[in-house]
Each structure stands twice: as structure tokens, then as C-alpha cells.
Specification:
- The structure is a homodimer of 373-residue chains.
- Chain A has 373 residues and is of the alpha/beta class.
- Chain A has 13 helices and 14 strands.
- Chain A has two domains: 26-267, Type I PLP-dependent aspartate aminotransferase-like (Major domain) (Aspartate Aminotransferase, domain 2, 3-Layer(aba) Sandwich), CATH 3.40.640.10; 271-371, Alpha-Beta Complex (Aspartate Aminotransferase, domain 1), CATH 3.90.1150.10.
- Chain A has helices at 26-32, 42-59, 73-84, 98-109, 127-137, 158-167, 186-189, 215-223, 235-242, 254-270, 272-292, 319-330, 357-371; strands at residues 15-16, 65-69, 90-95, 113-118, 141-145, 147-148, 153-154, 170-174, 193-195, 209-213, 308-312, 332-333, 335-336, 345-349.
Chain lengths: 373, 373
């Protein structure tokens, strides 16, 4: 093969202050560029075992069943639904944002009988509301979003898991935006099935989706009579590949596993408590500066996701124009709102390497400079 | 965030002479380590457009519909089946290897009425055989594998597409192992739907699956009444993201796209004809040396996949032991057989950077040294 003279990509430098992907540490890029081994190489399974161990820590669980899906967070969502809700079973979904809408949509596609508890986007659900809904519906499973990326709202998991246990429903929790940046504590909350991604709180490139299942839910999986409708996401088959016999399933994206391995090592090195505290401090500084500039946070204090802040677009400002200026003048990416919140909010992440008070200050100054001409 | 002292991964050096993943060029690793941008960043869509253009060349098609699925080759297979075979429709599958078995299995899971034409593993299908089968079955779609990774057998696409057109069936072709190493020529053969991967003939890390659809099959997709059962792989939704409006679907694995972009640039630089010729020369040298050593090729000349060679395990040799010695003593990965071919064949790739006559010699020498104690 001739020596190449073809020039490589030259991506623009961006500061990723959006809801994800978040900024990636240089060490993670370095790990991702290491030589791959085969998907059945013993070294690969050593990497997998390290990842599984470290994921247990960030998820706050002792679940033996913790694996990584070869797709992004949405693939994790579809894995949870397609493995744990069979056609005709009743799936209850707590809907107050874009990603809980997506769960309901996937449930429909997999033939579930979907029942919804709807609240306006930007609100969360009290235990009493969930209990009344589940008592009435008696679903097989209830799904909810821990940290709703579209609104910036945090949901207390126990407000769902307690009433769910009372009616014997399994719980499916979307941890896409929460994992690695705020405490999750699956075991303490009694969550049955949880999924996440790599490109937000863990600050790795997108491409993988960690999924974990409680021992009780593993029994339900094993007792399942029909095959999972999606071969690629069939957790029983994936278990035979990643665990025990290492029976070939698909060719795992080795480089993305290297990146996740390194990202988790950085989390370990800092320590979870220190990492969470750093995110809290950065968020506090962000909110202080936003409010000092007479801007308004969309979500009331107490319901906010620490590292995913939503700010109301002020009267007279053009949301899209401001974001375009941020990219053009500062190389800063933030996001706007979806659906009913389109044009009304900015969605701003302070995650991973960017979650510092200095960066909060830099970002607010840049945002304000781009809000008005 | 504190400066890290955590040490990075140190993967063993491997020469990837298996059926995939294949050896990755340093330039591709370098591209993959570049800073990511957001999944809605205009720069990302420039990268996507370059990839789409270059994929058309290697697929041999002018199809406007050519996109990349955020999963490995198996995700591409499931995308093709779930979008183009609705529940109850008849899917004909030509089965003579592990991956055609997988197509049939996925077809079952998606509710297709699956009819099979079975031949022993290691054989391919003549036009007369396919015509007789399709005339009898009159299926909605017929699926087959171009280069069957489990056996080393190449299937002539026209032997399927001609009889399929005669009965009005759409054709689904698995190009997982063929893309980038041998000619495909989708348009000349009249293939409707094709999918592949990045980690074989294109010599990029695993993680993405290119999929292309003929204009006629796009009309079928648009006319589809039910939603694709898999939200993550719904080509209509993916089209809205990658084409035109760039409506958010999922967070694309940016780094994997960078790698594919660079891998395709290397293919372009070498030129397709030169690349194919290099693979042919390497394979000829490999076969010459194998036969000179009194080893036997599993597939008859004329039906072989140029770059994926299957060699019969000689009497008295231990297939697994030989492969373990190759890894331990030479850092060389090759693969064994699946199912009925377990223990009976070696599967040996000469792809991408490793497809040279020198490497063929190196490999055969190492293999022979590890066959006998």
C-alpha cells in the first residue's frame, strides 16, 4: 500500500457547551487512537470488564448485568423497551419533554399498549401523581427520564420507583444526561432497567450506550417467551458475547470502548464526589451570573439538572441568531429548545472538562455579548 | 478539572489477518482522534456529504439515497430488513452460511414470512436455482450475501437480481465483507438495498454501517404504511436528519465518521482499480503459497472472495491451538470456522493495508510454523 499524502480532516475548534456531545478530554482522544484488537481478543474483554466495573460505580449499582450497547443513547432506550416490554403489555410513560415522548413513540412501535401521564414540558412528577396514575393503570412497566435534556428538569427517581413497586411494575429509567455528572444511585432507588450514553456526563465521543438491569428484571428477561424483536439489541444474545462464553454476536466498536475506558478512568481518578461537587459549583456560578445579568432560568431552583441549564430567551432577542453568533465569534456551541420550547430557551451544558466556574463565567459573558446587536 | 496522571490503555500490537476488523491505517487513527464537533454542526454535515459521495464510488452506484447507520454491519442488516420487509410480507433468503442464516433470523423477528433456499455452507447459487425458487415463491423481497464471511464464498449478484426482477421482488444485498476490497457495481447489477460495514474492506474501526437504496426502493419506503418497527434504524427519520432539514434524530458518533472520511480518502487516493488489483495480487500469492505447502483452499477457484480466504485445517492439526500460537508467537489474529465449519477451516483476511504479497508470505510462513508442534 503506497504511503499516503492525503490530508487529514481539520475540524473547527469548538467549545461544546451544548446538552451533548460534551467536550472530550485529550486523554480520551489519545486512547481512541490506539491500535484496535479483534472483537474476540482477550485484551478486548479485559477492557470490557474494567468498563463494567467502573460503570457500576457511576450508576450506583451492584447489578451483575451491566453492558454496553453498540449504538448511541437512543439505541440504549430502544434496547430497554424492546427487551422489557413485549407486544400487548402495558407500558406507562411519564411524559413532559422530548425524550419521554420518544420513549412513548418507541413503545408504540414495539407493540406495547402505551398509557401516558402528560404534564407540560418543564415540569416533573410528584410521587402522589405517579401513584394515582399507576394505581389506575396497573402497567407491566413504567418508563421515565431522570434528567430531561429537552427541558433541564430533574425527576426524583423514588417518586416513580416507590409507587411502581407498589403495583408490581418494573421501572425503566433514562439516564442519558445524568450518568457521570450527578448521583444516580440505581440500587438505592430500586430501578430495574437503566440506560445512558457516553457523550454527556462521561465526556467521551458518542457511539455507545451503557445498559444495566437489576437481578429481578434479569429473571423477567430470562423468562421471556418471544425473542427480542431487534436482533442487534437482544440482551440475551449480547450477554453470551460479553459474558462467559464470548460467543460472537457482532463486531464491537473497539475504539469507542477504548475511549469509554479512558473516560471512566478519569472519572475514577477525580473521584465521584469531587466530580459531582465540581459540577455543582460550576452550575451555581452559572446561575448566579445569569441572574445577575437579569436573565431568567427556565426551571425553578430545586428541579434543575445541575449540568444542563435552560435559560429563557429574553424578550426581543433572536435565539437562533444568538447561537449562530456564539459559534461564529466564540466557537461556542449551545442548543435551543425543541417543540413547544423552540425559540424560547437556550440549553447550556456545563459538563466534564468544561464544568468549572471559569468556564461558566466565559460562557455567560459570551452569551450576553451575542444576545443583542 | 485537575490535570490527569492516569495512564492510558496499552493494547497489544496485533496484525489483523482475520475476517475483520482489519488493520487500520495510522492516518485513520489520527483522523479519529481529532476534536469532535456537535451532531448538528455544519462541519459535521460537510464530512457526511464527502462520505456519501465517496461511498457511491465504492458501492458502484448513483443512488441519491446513501447513508450511514450508527451501528456495526449487523445494524445495517437489521436496518435493511426492518425498513423493507413489513410483517406478513414474504422474504426469500438464500442460505449457505452464517450470515445468510442471520438474515433469515432477523426476518423472522420482524414478522416476515421467511422462505429459504438452503445449500450446504460453502456453496453459492446459480441463476437457474434462484429463478426456480423465486418463480415458485413470488416473494416481496429476496436477500442474499455477496461475500459470505463465514465460508469465503462469493455470490454473483446478477444470478439473484435478474430472476428477482422477473418476479418483481426487491433485492437486499449484504456487502459487509465486499465493500472497498472488490468491485460491487450495485447499479449494473440492479440491486435495490445494500448494506455494509467500515471494518473490513474499508479498513476503518468498526462502528458504522453504510446503507444505500435504489430510487425504486425509496418509493416503496415512502409508500410504507406502518412505521419502521425500530425507531433507531428508521430510514425515513434518518433521512430527515442527514438530508435537507437536518432534523435531530440521534447523536451521531462523530469520531467514527471522521475515521470513515479518512478511510475513504485513502481509497480515493489509491484509486479503486489499483486497490482491487492489489488485493487480487496479494490473494494470488497467498493461494500459491498455501498450495505449495500442500494445504488446501476450502472454496474452489472462481468462487472465492479475493480478500477473505478459507483454508482447510489439515488432518492432525488443532485449529484452535494453531490460532492461539499465532497470537502468542506472532501477534497475528486469524479466525476459525462457525457452525458446521467449526474446527475445519481457517478464515484469513488480506485486506486494506495488509493486502500485499509480502504480507501474504509473512502470514503463510507464520501459519505453517504454528500448525504442527
Amino acid at each position: 500500500m503506497p504511503v499516503s499524502t492525503v490530508s487529514s480532516l481539520n475540524p473547527p475548534r469548538r467549545l461544546l457547551f451544548g446538552p451533548g456531545p460534551s467536550q472530550v478530554a485529550p486523554q480520551v482522544y489519545e486512547a481512541m487512537g490506539k491500535s484496535i484488537v479483534g472483537h474476540l481478543d482477550p485484551f478486548f474483554f479485559e477492557v470490557v470488564e474494567d468498563i463494567r466495573r467502573d460503570l457500576r460505580t457511576v450508576f450506583g449499582t451492584k447489578n451483575p448485568f451491566i453492558h454496553v450497547i453498540s449504538g448511541t443513547g437512543s439505541a440504549g432506550m430502544e434496547t430497554a423497551l424492546s427487551n422489557f416490554v413485549e407486544p400487548g403489555q402495558k407500558l406507562a410513560v411519564l411524559v413532559s419533554g422530548y425524550f419521554s415522548e420518544r420513549i412513548a413513540e418507541m413503545g408504540h412501535r414495539h407493540g406495547a399498549s402505551v398509557v401516558r401521564l402528560d404534564k407540560p414540558w418543564g415540569q416533573n412528577f410528584s410521587e402522589a401523581e405517579v401513584a394515582a396514575f399507576l394505581d389506575k393503570e396497573k402497567p407491566h412497566a413504567v418508563a421515565f427520564v431522570h434528567a430531561e435534556t429537552s427541558t433541564g428538569v430533574l425527576q426524583d427517581p423514588s417518586a416513580v420507583t416507590r409507587p411502581a413497586k407498589a403495583v408490581g411494575a418494573i421501572t425503566i429509567m433514562d439516564c442519558v444526561t445524568s450518568l457521570g455528572a450527578i448521583p444516580i444511585n440505581l440500587d438505592a432507588h430500586g430501578v430495574d432497567v437503566a440506560f445512558s450514553c457516553t457523550q454527556k456526563g462521561l465526556s467521551c465521543p458518542p457511539g455507545l450506550s451503557p445498559v444495566t438491569v437489576s437481578p429481578a428484571a434479569v429473571e423477567i428477561l430470562r423468562a421471556r417467551k418471544t425473542a427480542c424483536p431487534i436482533w442487534y439489541m437482544d440482551l440475551k444474545l449480547l450477554l453470551e458475547y460479553y459474558d462467559g462464553a464470548h460467543r460472537y454476536h457482532h463486531t464491537a466498536p473497539i475504539s469507542a470502548f477504548y475511549a469509554l475506558h479512558q473516560g471512566l478512568a478519569l472519572v475514577n481518578e477525580e473521584g465521584l464526589e469531587a466530580r459531582f461537587a465540581r459540577h455543582v459549583k460550576a452550575a451555581a456560578e452559572f446561575v448566579r451570573r445569569i441572574e445577575a445579568a437579569n436573565l431568567k432560568m427556565f426551571v425553578p431552583a430545586g428541579s434543575r439538572i445541575t449540568h444542563l441549564n435552560t435559560v429563557c430567551v429574553p424578550e426581543g432577542a433572536d435565539e437562533l441568531k444568538a447561537r449562530k453568533r456564539l459559534i461564529a465569534e466564540h466557537g461556542i456551541e449551545i442548543a435551543g429548545g425543541f417543540g413547544p420550547l423552540a425559540g424560547k430557551i437556550f440549553r447550556i451544558g456545563l459538563m466534564g472538562p468544561l464544568a468549572t466556574e471559569d468556564n461558566a463565567a466565559l460562557l455567560v459573558d459570551a452569551l450576553i455579548s451575542c444576545l443583542h446587536n
